[in-house]
Amino acid sequence: MKKEVLKQEYQYGFHDEREAVYQTRPGISDSVIDEISAIKNESEWMRKFRLDALHVFGQKPMPTWGADLSAIDFEKIIYYIKPSDRMARSWDDVPSDIKNTFDKIGVPQAEQRFFAGAAAQYDSDVIYHALRKNLLRKGVIFVDMDTAVREYPDLVRRYFGTVIPVGDNKFAALNSAAWSGGSFIYVPPGVKVEMPLQAYFRINAQNFGQFERTLIIADEGAEVQYLEGCTAPVYATDSLHAAVVEIIAKPHARVRYMTVQNWSNNVYNLVTKRARAEEGSFVEWIDCNLGSKITMKYPSVFLMGRGASADTLSIAMAGPGQHQDAGAKMVHMAPDTKSNVISKSVSFGGGRTSYRGLSRAVRGAKNSRITVRCDALILDPQSRSDTYPALKIDEEDVRVEHEAKVSKIGEKELFYLRSRGLSEVDASSLIVTGFFEPLMKYLPVDYAVEMNRLIKLEMEGAVG
Questions:
Q1: C-alpha angle 325/438/417, rounded to 5°?
Q2: Is residue 85's pLDDT more than 70?
Q3: How many CA atoms lie within 13 A of 215 on its CB side?
Q4: Would the pLDDT of 11 be above 60?
Q5: Per-residue pLDDT reduced to its tens digit, 279-334
Q6: How buried is residue 403: exposed, middle or buried, by Cβ count under 10 Å (0-12/13-18/19+)?
Q7: DSSP-assigned beta bridge partners for residue 296
Q8: Residue 39 in this model has a pLDDT that exceeds 70
Q9: pLDDT 10s digits, 362-417
């Protein structure tokens, strides 16, 4: 019953009865990949990259160390759906039925008020893209990845697949073969993009796989913030989301990558995200995970240059039938590097959260500092939380701190709040939002407000 309540309350569970301009047949094969590459009119190097990746995908085993993925049927998935025959540069030019979807989500309003640029992806393709003119004049590039392959081939080819190689894991290989859409960002040396760039990813079709590819390059001394949001309808059948994100932070650059994920609970969310941080640079992942059937996501940073630093701040909520398996990976490969991982999770209604992380210092990474903190809140006896931390230290001159805590909502706190006139739902929601508050302050105001509202909706399903 609780699961049904959550489905009914999921705000973005609607779908559009839209007929695609073009779509491939279900299943993955060399001919399907050739078809995708041909319709995109790609150069030979990218077509070969895709086909090589497909062969790696076929050879890689399914991961068995995390959540149960045995129900995924790769032959029933549709790997490419083209929703429109052109990309719009003005919101008024977006096809009306697609525009109505994003109007409900609030993309155009958010762009006008808070963002330096915005993109909207619907199924396989980016259907809208815009960047403020002052950033164009400074040489900032913010386009969809398909456009980048055509218009900036040398820059893309130099960095594409260098942070996450094709053979990294089965789903990275699948993305490398079937990728479509996503964002390409290049910020020139010394340029600071003070307002966030935003992308929004929407799955509309059934039995669909969304495989966007994002590549962010912040050149020396540059600064950029990027925020993505994700939703999908509620269907009886499952969908697959397997993105790849690569970030290159050049010396003394700063990159902040924020994700607010609110997938419906019929989506397998299996993504690979990794950054390379060079000397004196800073990379920050802010990861908010709600919804999905299964999430496996472990944002990583390889600290390659002296004095590089990185933070991962993670929020996860798992309700009925959900497993949020998330964490972080920090690899210190240079001296004087610093990493900080903070993970907070809430499980309720029989849901399961897992923290899975690796912090490593290789020999020679002297005077490095590693901090890991995992806090879990379990709301009922049916729910579960696990922690799988790994520390691999090959250098003696390293400072390492690790802390983990599991707790439940205290009866005293609930009694106190209810004695002040709050309902059980409101009291529980207040405790949970307070539990997440140290990380919520990093989000733009509208997104923090939306997160608080979503948490309350989830709690109504848990407590009501």
A1: 100
A2: no
A3: 25
A4: no
A5: 999 999 999 888 889 999 999 999 999 999 999 999 899 988 999 999 999 999 99
A6: exposed
A7: 270, 325
A8: yes
A9: 999 999 999 999 999 998 889 999 999 999 999 999 999 999 898 887 777 777 77
DSSP 390-427: EEEE--SSEEEEEEEEEEE--HHHHHHHHHTT--HHHH
Q: What is the pLDDT of residue 10?
A: 46
Q: How far apart are CA 184 and CA 182, in angstroms?
A: 7
> Per-residue b/e over 208-234, b at no fewer than 16 CB within 10 Å?
bbbbbbbbbbbbbbbbbbbbbbbbbbb
In this predicted structure, what is the pLDDT of residue 228?
A: 83
DSSP, residue by residue, 166-214: GGG-HHHHHHHHH----EEEEE-TT-B--SPEEEEEE--STTBEE--EE
Q: Of 446, 449, 201, 441, give the one whose Cα is nearest residue 313.
A: 441
Stated length of the chain: 464
Q: What percent of the chain has a predicted confidence (pLDDT) above 90?
A: 53
**What is the Cα–Cα distance from 32 to 160, expressed in whole angstroms?**
22
- Residues contacting residue 6 through CB under 8 Å, at least 6 positions apart: 265, 319, 320, 349, 458, 461
Determine contact, residues 186/155, Cβ cutoff 8 Å.
yes
Query: Distance between alpha carbon 323 and the CA centroid of its chain, in Å?
Result: 16
The per-residue b/e assignment along 64-95, b for 16 or more CB within 10 angstroms, e otherwise, is eebbebeebebeebbbbbbbbeebbeebeebb
Task: Report d(CA 66, CA 44) in Å as an integer.
Answer: 36
Are 292 and 268 within 8 A, CB to CB?
yes
- Is the model's pLDDT at 231 over the cut of 70? no
Contact 21, 13 (CB under 8 A): no
Taking the C-alpha atoms of residue 232 and residue 222, their distance in angstroms, rounded to an integer, is 34
